[in-house]
Amino acid sequence: MTTMKKSGEKRFSLVFSIALLILMTALIIPGVMGATAVNLATAGNYEILSESGISTTPGTQNTLVTGDIAVSPIDSSAITGFGLVRDSSGQFSRSSLVNGKVYAANYTAPTPATLTTAVNDMYAAYTTANAQTPSVTNLGNGSIDGMTLAPGVYKWSTGVNIPNNVTLSGGPNDVWIFQIAGVLSTGVNSKVILTGGAQAQNVFWVVAGNTALGANSQFNGNILDATYIALGNGATLNGKALAQTAVTLMGDTLSSPGSTPTPSVTSTVGVYRSGVFYLKNTNAAGNADTVFAYGAASDTPLVGDWTGQGHDTVGVYRSGVFYLKNTNAAGNADTVFAYGAAGDTPIVWHHNGQDTVGVYRSGVFYLKNSNSAGNADSVFVYGASNDIPIDGSWI
């Protein structure tokens, strides 16, 4: 009898433990599998895409966006606080706050058409994401603070509030879609936490109302908002901000899911002889890897990343005129403009993600912020008349 009783107690204890574990799992992770990743198409080419404007104001730190940003159909006047510098191509601008390019609907072709397509893709992604069948509805009546959510499609007829933390637990290929009819808001210092290998690029917050991220909050996932997205002072967004109206920032950090720093590039040598470039792909003796005629024997050769694409191409300076190429090949110049005088020494310097030109004359530097004609953007005396100008990243 004693043996049978102990055996029965063990079986009961085991069954009870398993039942309790199942119950706890069901309470902590209420979702089910079945969400399908949303194809952002060309809208996914932008870290921020907005129809009516992107603005930033200083916070406790400067805003830093890794990736391209764009507005359409509004023009570039709706991008404020970024200190834009228009590229000589007219197709994009640069900003010290953006590790990428800045586009607007009033820029030179093909930018307007490209942005129209991106905005249409943003709408299509929003509609597609909202059309997926929910596996969980009105969880917590919109208050999901402290919950751990499994992959799935979650739908609310209200807003969603995260005062402190919410955890998304799943694998690297799992998908979360949050369909929110109201406002999405997060608290100060709040976090959306990813565990188990979950990826921010597979999380989609589809919001009909506005999105407001609290100061110093850390948010994971792509936001597709039918109205506007506002980030509080010092917030971090690991995901894309795609808004059908405006995006406002205040000293925030934004980066695309899965983005990696641009790999370092090692410069290699070349020579210019009698109007012909001989370029090497390695810093070693041997034959040239690229040979092409460009310019004349008396020209001064130049090298720079004229378009900000991370790739150096050549140019020449002749009698006060720059002739720049966007490819390392023979043919006509892609950019031609007069700057300086016949006796000036040309110089190339790096500014806001691309190389631009300048000249050195009698101990004075005259530097341009764009590859175009016009007055110098920086003028200062340094050196003596017979000095040779050089440029580099000294610190």
Tell me what the structure shows.
With 395 residues, the chain is mainly β. It has helices spanning 2-28, 111-131, and strands at 48-50, 53-57, 64-66, 69-71, 79-80, 85-86, 93-95, 98-104, 136-137, 148-149, 152-156, 160-162, 165-169, 176-180, 184-186, 191-195, 203-207, 211-213, 218-220, 222-225, 229-231, 236-238, 241-243, 246-250, 253-255, 270-273, 276-279, 290-293, 300-304, 313-318, 321-324, 335-338, 345-351, 354-361, 364-367, 378-381. It has 2 domains: 41-255, no CATH class; 270-381, no CATH class. It has 2 helices and 36 strands. The strands form 6 sheets. It has a 15-stranded mixed β-sheet that branches. A 7-stranded parallel β-sheet has the order 5-2-24-21-18-15-12, with no helix packed on it. Strands 29-30-31-32 form a 4-stranded antiparallel β-sheet, with no helix packed on it. The longest helix has 27 residues, at 2-28. It starts with a helix and ends in a 14-residue tail after the last strand. Residues 1-28 and 259-265 have low confidence and may be disordered.
If helices are DSSP runs of H or I spanning 4 or more residues, what is the number of helices?
2
Alpha-beta classification = mainly beta
Mean pLDDT: 88
Query: Uncertain regions: pLDDT < 50 for 5+ in a row?
Result: 1-28, 259-265
- Helicity range of the residues? 10-25%
The proportion of strand residues reads: 35-45%
Label the overall shape. elongated
Q: How large is the radius of gyration?
A: 28 Å
The number of E-state strands comes to 36
Number of domains: 2
Cα(first) to Cα(last) distance is 84 Å
* Major pleated sheet: 15 strands, mixed
